[in-house]
Amino acid sequence: MASTYGNNIKITIFGQSHGPAIGLTIEGLPAGMAIDEEALRTFMARRAPGGSLSTPRKEADEVEFISGVYQGRTCGVPLTAVIRNTNVRPQDYSSLHLIPRPGHADFTGHVKYGGYEDPTGGGHFSGRLTAPLCIAGALCMQLLGEEGIAVGAHIVAIGQVRDRLFDPIAVNANDFTAVKKHELPVMDEQQGIKMRSAIEQARAGGNSLGGVIECAAVGLPVGLGDPMMDGLESRISALVFAVPAVKGVEFGSGFAGSALWGSQNNDAFYVQDGQVRTRTNNHGGILGGISSGMPLIFRAAVKPTPSIAHEQNSVDLQAMQDATLKVTGRHDPCIVPRAVPVIEAAAAVAICDAFLEQKKYR
Amino acid sequence: MASTYGNNIKITIFGQSHGPAIGLTIEGLPAGMAIDEEALRTFMARRAPGGSLSTPRKEADEVEFISGVYQGRTCGVPLTAVIRNTNVRPQDYSSLHLIPRPGHADFTGHVKYGGYEDPTGGGHFSGRLTAPLCIAGALCMQLLGEEGIAVGAHIVAIGQVRDRLFDPIAVNANDFTAVKKHELPVMDEQQGIKMRSAIEQARAGGNSLGGVIECAAVGLPVGLGDPMMDGLESRISALVFAVPAVKGVEFGSGFAGSALWGSQNNDAFYVQDGQVRTRTNNHGGILGGISSGMPLIFRAAVKPTPSIAHEQNSVDLQAMQDATLKVTGRHDPCIVPRAVPVIEAAAAVAICDAFLEQKKYR
Amino acid sequence: MASTYGNNIKITIFGQSHGPAIGLTIEGLPAGMAIDEEALRTFMARRAPGGSLSTPRKEADEVEFISGVYQGRTCGVPLTAVIRNTNVRPQDYSSLHLIPRPGHADFTGHVKYGGYEDPTGGGHFSGRLTAPLCIAGALCMQLLGEEGIAVGAHIVAIGQVRDRLFDPIAVNANDFTAVKKHELPVMDEQQGIKMRSAIEQARAGGNSLGGVIECAAVGLPVGLGDPMMDGLESRISALVFAVPAVKGVEFGSGFAGSALWGSQNNDAFYVQDGQVRTRTNNHGGILGGISSGMPLIFRAAVKPTPSIAHEQNSVDLQAMQDATLKVTGRHDPCIVPRAVPVIEAAAAVAICDAFLEQKKYR
Amino acid sequence: MASTYGNNIKITIFGQSHGPAIGLTIEGLPAGMAIDEEALRTFMARRAPGGSLSTPRKEADEVEFISGVYQGRTCGVPLTAVIRNTNVRPQDYSSLHLIPRPGHADFTGHVKYGGYEDPTGGGHFSGRLTAPLCIAGALCMQLLGEEGIAVGAHIVAIGQVRDRLFDPIAVNANDFTAVKKHELPVMDEQQGIKMRSAIEQARAGGNSLGGVIECAAVGLPVGLGDPMMDGLESRISALVFAVPAVKGVEFGSGFAGSALWGSQNNDAFYVQDGQVRTRTNNHGGILGGISSGMPLIFRAAVKPTPSIAHEQNSVDLQAMQDATLKVTGRHDPCIVPRAVPVIEAAAAVAICDAFLEQKKYR
Fold first, then answer.
1. What is the pLDDT of residues C4-14, one digit of tens each?
2. Chain C contacts in chain A segment 208-237 (CB below 8 A)
3. What is the pLDDT of residue C120?
4. Cα separation of D356 and B360, whole Å?
5. Distance set, CA B280 to CA A247, A326, B253 (Å)
6. Residue A204: in which H helix or E strand, if any?
7. What separation in angstroms does the CA of C172 have from each of A287, B166, C220, D284?
8. ipTM beyond 0.85?
9. Is A288 labeled as ligand-binding?
């Protein structure tokens, strides 16, 4: 089984990179939401390829709502959106069926599906499948926005170039706007320029880079999320790890916090303007799986794009012997910039799911 | 909603720290499994308090199977196990209802449940609730063991004391046995001794420490897990983050890998004895959410125990004004050692869930 | 997998008839509900054996809440209730393992679980497992009651003795009270007396009888339930068919309505006191899976108790040859009276699940 | 939430009658199934309108697989199929928004979705949404067929004209073939002719008829299904009640059986050719929710089509006053014939779900 997530906002993502279409079904959106097509387009454009830093594959990513919308508004029933795949070049991948690309799902998918997998462009495992997740994210952000909740992310590292983190106490929606003004969504534009150089160097060398994305959600009421398996960390990480190439997720002070004393890592409570707040935010806005009202903050580690132009060692799965492989086709030297809205989308869907859960009890 | 996990192995954990009992229901275990009570007791004992490094609270953790077992074997229907809470001292927590402990779920639970939460000992949020997870883990490990799959974990850091990692290529069940021979489950006993000192120092200072646990699963066939939201990373992280105090999870090269070149992080395939293997294991045994047959490896960051003996700043939730708090009661200065089997249990349940999923298609 | 139901109110039932205990876990109840122990006891007593018409097996059915309750109120986390099995006599069933009782799950359970099933008293398949469902029902009825929704049922047939149906337009909570005043919950006490005679005749002849139960829910707002697979008919029937011995469920005019003209079966709308109502109620309060505000009405067919004192033809599963069987032990000649609250419970849980679903969108 | 079903075969149905498209996503089909397009087309044609007895609306029902298929075979990932709506005439329904059609979901949908529902042609509530269910059914039948399991249905009543039932002991796949040879799928062609007359009479009178469909599945192994909420009756009824207009479901002897003595209704076991069978089949092939190996048999009551040409009493929802309504547009006087494959599809999906569940444990 596969590609379904959520209890209250339930999404099912379908499609293959070079099949007829990709898309998703979302259940649980309230009826009457006016689809903000402009906001959707803007959001999708952030994920779309085409910038000077990414793959030359042009994907129009035109979203068609084939279910769940009536006269421009959600009508309460399952919403299905599809994006036709127009610019497919399956021949680029014709040899992959037998010689799996290192770092990709070619090998594992081949074994899992007994040789019946769709090998073209990664099939259902392609990064292209994050486009439908962005549709879900845009709609959930619209819903959360009406409740005063905003979600935003930025790049904190590309390769070994690092930018500073969000201020875990003061981060707000203005920061989300500010980072988008740069070519790369960073806090410090100087670091963004260095990141751009690093990416261009990777491209020139036929190599690739990964990085780290930090995401925050602000405006959450206290009380979203549930204990144990439905805690916010569990809900969010389950969806963030569904994004191809993510190999690590940490909340608040995360791995660094695990090296501190308790007296350093604990966040003292205080009252301000009738609200309970914490002086520091090592807990990343989540205590016991439940939102504390402080900014929710997490970081995702994105591995370097496995598609590189170098000749690599692999195996011939039919002959079962060693082989070499040179990946051609169109690929990003670094998908981190395009992954930023995808991480936001994952966070927005997970938070929206917890938000609707909590609405039952108010 | 809360405390349910899984599609094929479905677990529901219930109970409060100082309520009548804690326990769980597991659905999906095959009928006819002889419950290995000795293995269960041994496994539970690793989580139990009582060592010189942990809380003096004595919990017998006697497991009673009240459903799903007949004549010592699983009988196919929901298995329910309960552990009576015998050594409860609710008065230790009598003041917590109004002055939440920093780093705990007291505040978020209070708001979420409108003041009706069980505040004694953390209620359902207590680390004590990991005991039922260990029951599930022990049973799932038994099932996986029959398939040649073993799961083991060790401490790689306590505070700032670090041990070396598992060898990501060669790790095997012998390593799991070896680390258990030390007082703390570590690779290098010298580091274990330093960790012990650090914990004793924390206790002496009324403080606490966190750390990092590394877990591996070996013997997995290729093909477990599913793309996107049911990928192994999503399945495992959702359950690992359900363990109180876990704030980060990374697979394979994780955060460090995100700073490498693609050419460094990609794991080259080769054929050995008719099996496809990889020369390195930065992917942590998972490609596209699906097991590659290489050791599955992940690390979890555990925050320092929030219960410390220092006076801390907090708030009086009734008066809505600042207050101070001194936590009394019995607490571990470092729960990392006791969390090791819990992380193993989480991994075992998640892998077992994916294993049964795949059995449908063989 | 087995014994879990629901999306918003999620119940998991566990236990075997002659195991240590039976019980259930309910997730999704709001925090702060004062458990009405008296109402629970009264409700459970209607299902309990012990009347002159039922089995002499005495079951105290004492409910212990081991999770989810704090100081007499729900505290928001999974609620688990157990009933210890005290009066077990496994030897009564000692021969059933090999010679399955006709009409019972002995044979199918034996094959499904590979001979590892618990054969004593039907194990998990026993009617005794409806006691936990009644706990869930009582709690859900309490919740629905606060919203002005009442659920009630009565016997419309025992064998060939039939009573009249609820008035599908005018049925209300007073009817639910009225039917409980009779020895058997019927509309017309004269028919109840005939039913009692029929049951006594069955007992005298070592035989058994089935019947039909009608259940209504009143006070529902318009809009509960969802289209297609989460329609109220689907939700309710899935849980009602979980009650052992139920072999048919029909809503509104049901099977009889399928023989009418559309012009007869359609229910005309009209406005009364600012509310939309229907002149007739052949739709049983559900249109398109969604509540119409009219009384929700359904009937369940209960097969005759399969345990009869006659010698019956069966098979010896070990020798794989024909055999005869005489069931001893303590059995009801007719479980219909005791099934009445169980059907109410199933309806209450299903409606409560739909009710919480809809609360998300108000 | 809405339109998702199943644990192992998971289907999500989307679309509105007069929206751009209808379709579904199926998860859980094994990779490598060659899509039998001819069988699919034949199956879909049985549901399609166009015969002399049904609506003149012509729907091509051309199925496009946009996900999950590669080179004509399932490739293991979510399968999505869409049918474009080509012959839509929304103006036929332009007045329905305010004056709900009796017997339809217009009123309940309007209230549930706060006036934002898609009112054209019933929207998501339309019988047209059974076409995607038929796609799922055809694929599941193909899968079951490889295991020797066949599913078939016939009409047992149209209005007051009744045909005989399947022989509950001897029914087999030949019967399924035989009934399809008649214009209406019946056992006794003479009764089919009378049914046809009744339908023509209904059409002539601007009226409509309902009926009863009986469905059987043969070749099931013993052991499919699970106790309580995942019993076969629960699984099947939940999906059959998702079919618009179904208001009753009974298994085996059903409602009639509830009037028998236990000694009459119990089905005696015997051994034949090394197999356990029953002499009668009042249990409809299901004991304790689990298949017994005897033919699985159930009947579904279908209400008369609510769309009739008579003037009917309704309400003006805007003015909140009584009103009359005359439904125009293209409608079937009796949908029972077209519902036959839909009921088969529902049964096939539910059985397939239970079949894959059981495969985990073999």
1. 788 899 999 99
2. 227
3. 87
4. 6
5. 16, 19, 10
6. helix A189-204
7. 46, 68, 11, 35
8. yes
9. yes
